[in-house]
């Protein structure tokens, strides 16, 4: 098996030796496990990964297929995997859109996507209604694609909340 590694002036081909371990395909779990799958960056892209991440979409989707083959469900665009670490709401929307479309091509694939308030500027979060509207925007996007949403924590909510009832 050959892999492509980043190198000066492009990619370097490297031949792996030995036999890779073969996963048990379709193994049954006694619990439902969602993997917070990471995106695969394009290591050759000339960009600042914190402000303009360059995602290798082909490899990113291939990784999701790998996880589905192992029996995982996927929790997409979660704060534990991408959000806040270079993937903003604009990029998360593209990731969610692609992943939902890809999940439809895989029998038994299960995918849920993170919905939060990370697109809401801190100065714009003045009331609970602002936070609710931000959540609704992300929920509407995910559900509008036929996806399932997972409600994530919100710094904006923590900033405007007056007490535990909020």
What does this structure look like?
With 166 residues, this protein is of the alpha/beta class. It has a single domain, classed as TIM Barrel, CATH 3.20.20.70. Helix content is 31%, strand content 16%. It has 4 helices and 6 strands; from the N terminus they run E-E-E-H-E-H-E-H-E-H. The strands form 2 sheets. A 4-stranded parallel sheet has the order 3-4-5-6. A hairpin with a 2-residue loop joins strand 1 and strand 2 (10-15). Helix 1 packs across helix 2 (89-103). The radius of gyration is 19 Å and the shape is globular. The model has no long low-confidence stretch (mean pLDDT 89).
The CATH superfamily turns out to be Aldolase class I
Count of domain modules: 1
What structural class should be given to the helix and strand makeup? alpha/beta
- What does the largest sheet look like? 4 strands, parallel
Provide the low-confidence segments as ranges.
none
- How many helical elements? 4
Count of DSSP strands: 6
What is the straight-line distance between the termini?
54 Å
Features of this protein?
single chain; 166 residues; alpha/beta; TIM Barrel; four-stranded parallel sheet; two-stranded antiparallel ribbon; 6 strands; globular
């Amino acid at each position: 098996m050959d892999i492509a590694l980043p190198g000066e002036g492009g990619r370097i081909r490297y031949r792996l030796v030995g036999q890779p371990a073969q996963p048990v395909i379709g193994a049954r779990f006694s619990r439902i496990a969602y993997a917070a799958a990471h995106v695969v960056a394009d290591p050759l892209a000339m960009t600042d990964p914190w402000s303009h991440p360059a995602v290798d979409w082909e490899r990113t989707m291939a990784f999701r297929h790998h996880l589905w083959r192992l029996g995982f469900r996927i929790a997409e665009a979660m704060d534990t995997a991408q959000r806040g670490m270079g993937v903003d709401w604009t990029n998360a929307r593209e990731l969610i859109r692609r992943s939902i479309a890809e999940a439809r091509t895989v029998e038994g694939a299960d995918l849920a996507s993170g919905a939060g308030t990370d697109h809401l500027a801190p100065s714009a979060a003045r009331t609970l209604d602002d936070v609710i509207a931000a959540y609704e925007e992300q929920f509407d996007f995910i559900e509008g694609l036929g996806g399932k949403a997972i409600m994530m924590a919100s710094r904006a909510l923590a900033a405007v909340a007056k007490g535990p009832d909020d």
